[in-house]
Amino acid sequence: MRNLEEISKTVFYPPFCSSELFAKFCGYLKMDNTHEIAINKPSGYVLLYVLSGTGAILIDKREHYINPNNILLIAPNTVSAVKSDDILPLTFFWVCFNGSRAKALLAGCGFNGGSYFNAEFSGNDDIGDCLRNLVMLSDRTDSESCASIGYLYLLFSLLAKKGLIKKIANLDMSYVAKAVKYINENYQNGITVQDAAAFVNLERTYFAKIFKLDMGVSPQKYLIDMRMTKAVDILRMGNVSLKELCSQIGYTNYNNFCKMFRTRYGISPQKFVDK
Predict the structure, then answer these.
(1) pLDDT tens, residue by residue, 175-221
(2) Residue 1 has what pLDDT?
(3) Which of these, 112, 122, 257, 274, is most buried using a 10 Å CB contact count?
């Protein structure tokens, strides 16, 4: 598996002008021919901004689904991997940074100090523009290392100004972990979000709120994404009718399954089989 640092477009020299905040490496990737990228114990914080496509990030043996406009933050020394959807490949910018002020700046933006954080961005694409300008720094000179620091401070300013990362306080995310395990093990049994909320003894609205805060997507979308991913895996194996497939992934209504599949992948399941 390829490592994110190895494919980075820009690797900055150690900064001579700042130890408070500095970029280590950054890049841009469209995962057309690469299904999985490792992020092996980075020596700094890694921020990913998803431009398009869908996929998942694997951290501590848990998969978190990721979608366009998600901003992911991975803490130093965390072992993780980004997995891309085959049909809708991920495209994203990333930057690894560190420094004596990095932790405090992140706290000011609401980062909760765990190994992973996911927030959803909406609005114009000034964060994308900031990261694009950072990636375009390619001469590895002292002047460009200083320019990279300026872009990092701009990035933090945009995160704080737009309130992209919301503070999470006093939420017991063990409920979410239990719910994710329940969904992963029972998606084929026709379960609903209400079933998952009942399993962890939470009211549905509150459950949906803390689930999205932790996972970056609603429990409904997580459940649909899980079923659609399994549907593609089964279809690739062949020798199963579409109606049999429905029952294997928890759908009792064939038309509803076809609608969800088309919404996710842009084609009907039958056309996918015929490709």
Answers:
(1) 888 899 899 999 999 999 999 999 988 889 888 888 887 777 899 99
(2) 72
(3) 257
As given in the structure block, the two tokens for residue 166 are 């919301």
Distances (CA, A) of 191 to 179, 218, 227, 250, 255: 12, 15, 11, 7, 18
Classify domain 2-162 by CATH number: 2.60.120.280
CB within 8 Å of 35: residues ≥ 6 apart: 83, 84, 86
* Residue 10, beta-bridge partner list: 26
Separation between Cα atoms, residue 152 and residue 49, nearest integer Å: 14
CATH number (1.10.10.60, 1.20.1250.20, 3.40.50.1820, 3.40.980.10) of 174-274 reads 1.10.10.60
What is the token pair recorded at 57? 């990030």
**3-state class (DSSP) for residue 118:** strand
Nearest to 13 by CA among 190, 146, 170: 146
Which tokens go with 69? Answer: 């406009």
Residue pair 248/216 in contact (Cβ under 8 Å)? The answer is no
For residue 79 the two structure tokens come to 């072992």
Phi, psi of 4 (to 5 degrees): -60, -40
What pLDDT score was predicted for residue 72? 86
